[in-house]
Amino acid sequence: MESPVRFEAAQGTDSRYRLLVEAITDYAIYMLDRDGHVTSWNPGAKRFKGYEADEIIGRHFSAFYTDTERAEAVPARALDEASRTGRFEREGWRVRKDGTHFWAHVIIDPIRSPEGELIGFAKITRDLTERRNAEAKLRESEQQFRLLVQGVKDYAIYMLNARGEVASWNAGAQGIKGYTPDEIIGHHFSEFYTQADRDAGLPQHGLNTAAREGRWENEGLRVRRDGTTFWAHVIIDAIRDDAGLLIGFAKVTRDISERRQAEEALQQAHAAMLRSQKLEAVGQLTGGIAHDFNNLLQVISGNLQLLSKDFAGNPRAEMRVQSAMAGVARGAKLASQLLAFARRQPLEPKVVNIGRLVQGMDDMLRRALGGEIEIEAVVSGGLWNTLVDPDQIENAVLNLAINARDAMDGHGRLTIEAGNAFLDDAYARGQDDVTPGQYVLLAVTDTGVGIPPEALERVFEPFFTTKPEDKGTGLGLAMVYGLVKQSGGHIKIYSEVDAGTTVKVYLPRAMESEDALVAAPSVEIRGGDETILVVEDDDEVREVAVSMLGELGYRVLKARDAASALAIVESGLPIDLIFTDVMMPGTLRSPELARKAKQRLPNVAVLFTSGYTQNAIVHGGRLDAGVELLGKPYTREALARKIRHVLANQAQRQAVARPETKPPTQGAVLPAQDVVKGATVLLVEDDDLIRDTTAEMLTDAGCRVRLAGSAEEAFRLLEADVVDVLLTDVGLPGVSGLELAKTVRTRQPEACIVLASGDKGVGSDAAFLGASLVVKPYAPETLRQTIAKALQARKLASRQH
Questions:
Q1: CA 639, CA 630: separation in Å to the nearest integer?
Q2: What is the pLDDT of residues 175-225, one digit of tens each?
Q3: Is 20 exposed, middle or buried (0-12, 13-18, 19+ CB in 10 A)?
Q4: CA dihedral sign, ordered 468, 473, 474, 477
């Protein structure tokens, strides 16, 4: 019989174990019999599974398994494994009383008697749902982070171990640096640095700084797998474990080459803008100076021309007047250069081939530069045309050539190249006021001393020169700069000390065909008896103009400003033409005076004059439509010719509003109507009203009419069509009517030519060309008779041949 003491001890031990199990709430601890029925139930089991003890004891533990696992006999296999191996341990979904699932960690141990007989099982279950959810979230987070890092293409994001060896590699790293993961993982990250940076210890310095301070940030050149370099922004962050031990580095690299290039381009553009603003300010100043200077020249020139009549027949006095006039011409050229720089010079652009223009300057350049300088002109095939003022471009090339001669001290090689060029967006962004597109390139290169870098930024400033004091005015390059800008082009200088200089001029491509360039005509001086109102604020300039016009036979009124001139207009005095300076003091501007005068006197003609237009009547370097301008300083001949032209055009406008009163001209072999009917007439007239009304006259006469507003437009029409008659105004802007007539006479000798002008003095030029003259204002019948005579004369000449 067991002793009472031992029995009580055993009972005490069992009681303590029971109390221990009953006290545990974080684990379900219960017993199963050998068939798997529940025989005990602790509070932890109740909390996890939701069953009260009396609800579950006696039931099979498979009630805690899912339907799927029961169907697969998982509970029976668990008991079998426990009894065979001594332990069953798994994780899986289990089912609570209310049908919800939880993730459980399960241990089943067999319970055997002292004799080894299986009497049941001890089962311990723990609810790991929260831990599993946390682990799942962690895995999901890690997966998302991995996808994020791998998906980034614009940044190289990778890990280094504590020694600086690459431990991971994302797609951005491969794209930026060119290495695949297999090629770079395990290699030291210093391979991405230039040799100079490696020699300087920069990679290790970056790691040491990150390890010490937690982060290192840097910008510099890095090397790709193919050896090319790129500008990189780099961040290295230290990675430490929970104990603070350094276990590696996180490295982020971004290719900032484009950003850096953009920043450099922005800086260059800003610097160019400042230079441009500076030149613009200087240009406004020089334009104002040129205006006053031209007024002074006009006074001197006008008085010299008036004085020359008093010295007629005195050779010595005539020589002195001519010398003084030569000085005026030099001053006018200086003022013209100032205006060109200020972009205030009214241009006469034509469609030209720069290659032919340069080749045509060969003799001029050789005379200007001397025999010790070798000149070579290189013109590319298929050269495009450009729209420029050919006279101004010739001056520009001559200025550049003379600068080159001085830089070479009279000995060296000058190369002038003409070719096609394209300025792209990337280039334009780094320059000031450059439009991307197609250009004609004119490059002038010398083998001279070059320009120092500190002077290169100032070479376009007027009066700035690197030449000795007596060797140049400093206006040559300034004039070229202004001309190129006003023509819509771009200019760039490349120079190296002791190696030479290249000036590259880019002029916009023109799609039109080339215009013919011929010499300017000479026209006989003729005056008149009309009344002219001279409006000029400078007393001396005004008096010179009044004297010139008086000598030409005109009746002259005068006013010192626009307001005074308007008062004279409103007084009712008859006025045929207003000759007014553009720039005058007062609130009433000259264009406004012209507008109000025409309201009061509809038939009055207006001629502007100026040494500096300041965009009042000139925009984009060209005169506004319908505006007539005589630039200062002007000669007596130029004034006389321009006055007759403007008065004739105004008379023609008036004539179209009146019916024909004169009898038809006698002597025509056939009625004029029959002769001109069916003839093709090219009418060239810049005045819109005169062109339209004359076209109507010709159409009424039965002619087929082609219209052009300029000689340049007429040349283009003549290339596509053959005409019977060229009817052209003499005073066209740009290429004159006489120049046009000479060219047409060469190209189409059989064509009849009729010149229209208000100046009968043009008759001698007409006779020289074998042309007819119709004097403005002409009536429809007068025009028909003139054209008829010209056609009859041509027919007669063809019969004689």
A1: 7
A2: 888 888 888 889 999 888 999 999 999 999 989 999 999 899 988 889 898
A3: exposed
A4: negative
